[in-house]
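Researcher: Structure for this, please.
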Amino acid sequence: MQDDILKVAEGTVIYEQGTECDSMFLLREGKVGLYLDFGTPKQFALIEMTGPSSSLGEMGLLEGEPRNATAVALTDCTLVEIHTDDFGEFIAAHPDETETIIKDLSHRFKTVMDELKTAQGTIYDFIDELGDRPPKKLSLKERIKRYTDLFLEIPPDVPPDLYMSCYTRFHGSML
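Model: Predicted structure, token format:
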């Protein structure tokens, strides 16, 4: 097995969402961002990873599925690329780094689980808030958009309570 050391410049797309996956990367130096729908209006930042102990692309390699996100170098980076055919040999030759990869995956999984629990609590709060009131004719998509607009698009120079007051006045009830 030969280590493929890659030097990538800031702004470089390391891999794209939806492309076939035949390798993973160990981030030795720099910072990498993972994005859903990168470069589109729906772009969503998943995580920023910093070297020297982060791994990326391993999910596609382990599952044999296309890349589920786009990886972009946020700074100049040094990466080690590990190809599918070399992964078993890498595990045998580098048990400490393999343990680090497993811990990194476990940490990211725990973070996702925590976010899902928070989202579940928010959904139940919305349901409780509705109570026995008859539903309005807004679709769930419209209601979620209104909440998103309210909580994520507040101009930085406008006090939130003033913004909420104006928002309610112009957009009516939130539900």
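Researcher: Any notable elements?
Model: Residues 5 and 80 are 5 Å apart (CA to CA). The helical segments are 58-63, 87-93, 95-130, 140-152, 160-171.
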